[in-house]
Amino acid sequence: MNVEEIVDKVANGEIKLHQVEKYTNGDKKLATEIRRKALEKKLGVSLENIGHYSIDPNRLIGKNIENMIGVVQIPMGVAGPLRINGEYAKGEFYVPLATTEGALVASVNRGCSALTAAGGVKTTLIDDKMTRAPLLKCPDARRAREVAEWVKANLDYLQEKAVRKVTRHGKLRGVKPYIVGNNLYLRFEFETGDAMGMNMVTISSEEIMKVIEEEFPDVKYLALSGNLCVDKKPNAMNFINGRGKSIIAEAVIPREIVEEKLKTTPELIAEVNYRKNLVGSAQAGSYGFNAHFGNVVGAIFLATGQDEAQITEGSHGITLAEVTPEGDLYISVTMPSLEIGTVGGGTRVPTQREALSIMGVAGGGDPPGTNARKFAEIVAGAVLAGELSLLAAIAAKHLAKAHAALGR
């Protein structure tokens, strides 16, 4: 069949979308074009812009996407320079932000300017782990406790017997069991190097389940995720216990910089933060005691190939602001669940890899894990910049004016 014949058969349903590669001798770029043309024909629409791209479908289909028809292009801006005084990130960085929200990049850029003028952002990594929590059905609660105790006592055995079989980079470092009736949830904690690690810990956890079922024949493995992981949902578990990178970014900004660059005072920023981010969020029952973590996290995730659904947990966290005894502004962001990586997943897409290279974090670090941690410090610093700028805009009553000028 020629291309037009294949297009016709896809359009009328004789060939399914996922079957097109069978008719293109494995040419995934041609298959992408055929699917798009078939949709145009069937729906009577033009998909011209979706069809303009520079990335190679042959490198993506089967790893990052299925039924590919093209791309969505999101404008990307850059904020900075932002000085980071971290444990892994040291120096000035430019931060790529992919967004269609006018004023966001400008706002983060203003925050970067103020923080850098104040000497930079101090970042502290509190924890680094990826979790998966399989569900086991036990005969009763006592048996569930026995299984949990055995697992806690045999982590090294499970690492050798199960985890090492499927990954060279993952390390089982801990487990927290939860028992509800005869249900046993095992929240495993893994080290995953520079990868965000969800695939790694998922495959490893399934191998561990096989070992447990062999050891306890009366116990049934029901679900690879029992929803205590917790992945891609707002939740108290990750807010309290953390998942991915748990990190704090903080800075002290002299009063004169607050007044000159941000057009307000430390006192007003601290009061707005208290009444808006803390009291207002408490009244709303929010897991995000902050102004807009999700805005900055989302823009960086889209730019750098992170799992966009995990913006949910990246939005968890607390912004603090207070006036120091010297009359300056102390401000910090605490992010308990920043799930990011610099290898694997969407980070292998060329455009996203280029965005990571802007920050000097593309690919694996030496030693493993250092690039992802450096990236986490830069993200936390950018989030702090976004919080500072937005709080200042609200305190100075400039928010509506900025959006009228840049967002309409």
Could you give a short description of this structure?
This protein is of the alpha+beta class and 408 residues long.
Folded structure, characterized:
The chain has 408 residues and is α+β, with helices and mostly antiparallel strands. The chain has three domains: 3-59, no CATH class; 76-128 and 244-407, 3-hydroxy-3-methylglutaryl-coenzyme A Reductase, Chain A, domain 2; 134-223, 2-Layer Sandwich (Alpha-Beta Plaits), CATH 3.30.70.420. It contains 15 helices and eleven strands. It has helices spanning 3-11, 28-43, 57-60, 104-117, 141-153, 155-166, 198-215, 236-241, 255-261, 266-284, 293-304, 311-314, 350-358, 370-395, 399-406, and strands at residues 76-85, 90-98, 121-132, 135-137, 171-180, 183-191, 220-223, 244-253, 288-289, 317-323, 329-338. Strands 1, 2, 3, 4, 5, 6, 7, 8, 9, 10 and 11 form an eleven-stranded mixed sheet that branches. The longest helix is centred in the last third of the chain and has 26 residues, at 370-395. 47% of the residues are buried.
